[in-house]
Amino acid sequence: MLVPLSWLLEYAALTEPVDVGEVARRLTAVGLEIEGIERVGHDISNVVVARVLEIEELTGHKKPIRYCRVTTGGPDAERQVICGAVNFVPGDLVPLALPGAALPGGFEIGVSKRYGRVSDGMICSASELGLGDDHSGILVLPPDAPLGADFVAYAGLRDVVLDVNVTPDKGHALSVRGMARELASAFGVGYSDPADAGLSAGADGAGGAGGANQVYPASIADPAACDRFALREVRGIDPARPAPLWLRVRLTRSGMRSVSLAVDVTNYLMLELGQPLHAFDQAALTGPIVVRRARAGERLETLDHVVRDLDPDDILITDSSGPISLAGTMGGLATEVSDSSTDLVIEAAHFSAPGVARMSRRHQLFSEASRRFERGVDYELPLRASARAVEMLAELGGGTVLPGYTLASAPVEPVAIVIKADHPDRVAGVTYGTDTVIARLREVGCTVSQDSDMLTVRPPSWRPDLTDPNDLAEEVIRLEGYEQIGIRMPRAVAGRGRTVVQRLRSAVGRALAGSGQVEVISSPFGSAADFDRLRLAAGDPRRRAVALANPVRDEEPLMRSTLLPGLFRVLSRNAGRGFADLALFEIGEAVRARAHAPAAVAPILAVDRSPVAEEIAQLEAALPDQARMIGVVLAGEREASGWWGDGRRASFYDAIEAAHTVLRTSRVPYTVRAGQCEPWHPGRCAEFVLDQEATGGAAGEPVVVGYAGELHPRVIATFRLAPRTCAAELDLSLIEEAAAALPAVQAPVISSYPVATQDVALMVDDAVPAAQVESALVIGAAQAGTDVRLEELRLFDVYAGEQTGEGRKSLAYTLRFRAPDRTLTDEEVATARDAAVAEAGRLTGATLRGGV
């Protein structure tokens, strides 16, 4: 929010001279971060108020050229000036830049000869003086402007503009009223409330309920949408009158442009008080005004000339003709104040903050009004703000205020918060004392009553964000200063450290990174179209995605149920930027709605105590399944080409090896077998299954933890990936659960005796996976009945041809044996090898091929 410092100082009584740097520091200390400080008007000099005496129209030019005789008052004060604007006449007062004057942007004025005449200065427009982007003509001053006066001082152009970052929890500070209150509190000086300034007796509704002498009729049909709706009327204003210069200067300094008197006054009061206002053309209204929700099929053309289809949850201001405004967001075009509007109805209301927030996001319509309403405004302010508005319009526009007002209202239950006096002390770890706590809360505007060590606090109407004890503690802490809170490093509890699951997660990430993969973080959102691109079947669990109530992007309304689409998009984006050789991995959650479980709403838990078991159970029942997954994608060259020769493209073997890396790191027993699962190629997909000893499951209940292999060509084409792209995805939650049940790691005994190597070649059917043969060899070697250990097993050759016969293949393995306490004899090694081969033959039908 942009706010001129001079405006704040009208209500916060800081001692002159004011140190701007100290103002910025103290506002930042209380939570209003100053993002920028701009000194405006200080680069303007030698501009004075002048009167136009005579205008000579120069002919023979393509555009209007006028030679103007002006005076700044006094003897020898007349000058001749060339000007191309036509919006002023003799007798008007204008700003005149004298020779030697400086204008914003370093522009200097001198004596010049143009169109055959000498121009002794320049008559200035608003844009040339840094007062907006209005290039339509010269800035014509009021008749009472002091002739010859320094224009910068007269118009109050020299100022300091603060750019304040107002966070969503401090909606009260989105106004001069709220920010000046914070400034006065930060300096410990007096504060005067602008909501009380300039009000006539009874204007705030005191002494009258519901609006004595009601003006335009109004009512509220839905109290949940609006609890205060006030109307006032002003008649007979002159729509041609511009807003006064001081008001336009303040609007410009605050980042708003001047439009018309009615719009400028409502915008000015919104900035000053924080209460959005809207002006209706009284002649365009038909019948009583009603605040209600939208009905099916209703539409409204808003001030931005967009016809909007309305949602049943939209909050509307309506008359007998139908919707005339999106409440708290934008008015309708049909009742817009025009250049001919003389009778105005001023509306000020208090709308539902969540309702306005949802509506503005639904229509992608964000305004200064909606920005304030969705953060919460003062529900007691509508009568005062509307009174100020009609009085200003009557004074500045020459109109008459219609006596009385209309106020439709619904009861608002006042908030009362009971806290212990030392609650802020316990939250901050600092001893403030009861007196300090009470003083700071009263400084905020709260009413505080004390009973022993308990405080009953009633927040003011302008602080709807104060709802529980911790909110009050935060107010005390920030006003006392966050720097008062000591800083110390947290100490780890003795005997504790990272859990088994946390250590495993880190180890898996390091292992994949060490094997050449790069970790990324992809978007956690997706769409139903991703499921079709992945070619998922109708009943696939990955289609049970959770829809977001308020998605960041309409194109991605779902929480992701698999990591693969996000990784594919990262892969495609990098390839599009020239990085085609990639190996990426991600560890993250995949969210899936629970099957056959009714939808439940998670309870809002209290923050002043720990949740009880029943509340935790309700919370768990309402949450979807959130499995931690690990995904890997590979494309391009896995081994780079170079002077040493050709490289090697990534293949499905690399994806399978990445899955092996994860499972080996976890130490969980597992089995690999041929699999078939979308989006992988049906003939190049491996399925990873946890062994029963790892899961504790009964026979016939394999636990599949994931798949790896080459993607289906249609999936590759749909996601625009490189040909033969490979991927792996494993359920890390299942792996972590199994790993947590494993016994502690025991350091292996390293034998100093030599290894004995044996090669065997086994003939098996084509349908027998190599992993099944390997498992059988390991089992057979362990059953040899000796202390000979099979230390390593490696597949080094696969052959199929005429010598193996149709439907058969040869698998050649290297077996490395070692004993812990001696050198193995040839007979011991042969016995262990034969036992391994025999078990492979029994389990897989393998037969020993001729000598290797």
Helix fraction by DSSP (H/I, runs of at least 4):
25-40%
Mean pLDDT: 89
Taken as a percent bin, the fraction of beta residues is 25-35%
Major sheet details: 7 strands, mixed
CATH superfamily of the largest domain: Bira Bifunctional Protein, Domain 2
Q: In what order do the strands lie side by side in the largest sheet?
A: 27-30-31-37-36-35-34
CATH architectural type of the largest domain? 2-Layer Sandwich
Counted up, domains total 6
Number of distinct helices:
22
CATH topology of the largest domain, by name, is BirA Bifunctional Protein, domain 2
Task: List low-pLDDT spans.
Answer: 206-211
Brief rundown of the structure:
With 852 residues, this protein is an alpha+beta fold.
What does this structure look like?
The chain is α+β, with helices and mostly antiparallel strands. The protein folds into 6 domains: 2-41 and 160-192, 2-Layer Sandwich (Phenylalanyl-tRNA Synthetase, Chain B, domain 1); 45-157, Nucleic acid-binding proteins (OB fold (Dihydrolipoamide Acetyltransferase, E2P), Beta Barrel), CATH 2.40.50; 218-409, Phenylalanyl-trna Synthetase, Chain B, domain 3 (Phenylalanyl-tRNA Synthetase, Chain B, domain 3, 3-Layer(bba) Sandwich); 417-483, 2-Layer Sandwich (Phenylalanyl-tRNA Synthetase, Chain B, domain 1), CATH 3.30.56.10; 500-602 and 613-740, 2-Layer Sandwich (BirA Bifunctional Protein, domain 2); 756-848, 2-Layer Sandwich (Alpha-Beta Plaits). The chain is 26% helix and 28% strand. The protein has a 7-stranded mixed β-sheet. Strands 3, 4, 5, 6, 7 and 10 form a 6-stranded antiparallel β-sheet that branches. Helix 6 packs antiparallel against helix 9, helix 11 crosses helix 12 and helix 21 (770-782) crosses helix 22. The longest helix has 19 residues, at 826-844. The protein is elongated, with a radius of gyration of 39 Å.
